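Action item from last week, closing it out:
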Amino acid sequence: MLKKAAGLLLVCAGVATWMSCSATVSHFVYAALPSANEVGIYREDPNSGVLTQLADSPFAAGNGAESVVVHPSKKFMYVANAVDNSISLFTIASNGEITEVTPRTQSGSTPTILAIDSAGTFLYEADSGSNSITVYSIDASSGALTEVTNFRTGHPLNIKLNPAGTVLYVTVTESPTGFVLAFSMNSGKVSSVIGTFSTGGASPYGLFVDPKGKYLYVTNAAPDNSIAEFTIGSDGGLTPIAGSPIGQADGINPLSVVVDPSGTYMYVANEGSNNVTAYTVASDGSISPLATPTFATGTQPSFLVMDPNGKYLLVGNQSSGIEVFSLSTGDLDTVTTFATGSNPSSLAITP
């Protein structure tokens, strides 16, 4: 595929007035490839879900490019370089290609996870080497980062913001029981610690806030193999839903969880059993497995990303690249598997 053609939009042609496209806007998928110190870029066909690698992909990043996140404006992308202790800023062209802006921002110790608030104002970085969170303000015109604050959390496994960007949730490993820390945020700084909430497992790993900001879900990795469910209060505090945590009979070592944009279905990647478990989400936030709840994946599925339109689920497999599934009333149908050439550790998709 020609480089300039990689980002072209799909168009419909026809003489009959009733003909139309089901979708016209392409999304671009970015994969952090830490062992190669690179970022892979793929165009997602909006009508089929098939991935096509851009001509110049992969692009060089820093050492140990561990986590990737796309700015809501689709203008910027950030990569946490865990070995370099730095963050790379890339500008994103209309065809999905990226250009790094140097110098890189020096970060905290071993940055492993990134998150951006929905307004695109602040970047949050989980630093596993210093057991802390670093927050940066984002320049709206250039994407440049300026450190705002750094605060201790215990060893952070994952971070998520509520849709309003006013509450930060952090999963922290602890023996014998892990927990979720909730922080009230104001202008990128902690205004208060809302509380510490047990997940019923030793290693709470995956973390997701539903699209309406009403419920929070946490995967408890092996040996617990369970899903913790919480309602989110007006102050950001968490209340366990009756029956939480839910054990997974056919899901071993769940590492990632997502809810589709409609808030109807939830999916969990089980790294130890090479499958994804699918659940329906009730009006009270409780979950129930589908009649056929598990769907086979490639080797070691470790993280999930939902297509913004809710049509496709992307699975990052540690030994086989990216797998794409289409959604049909909660069920998953395999679309394609794309070999990334190096094991991905994080996926991001343009809004």
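Closing note: Residues 1-22 have pLDDT under 50 and may be disordered.
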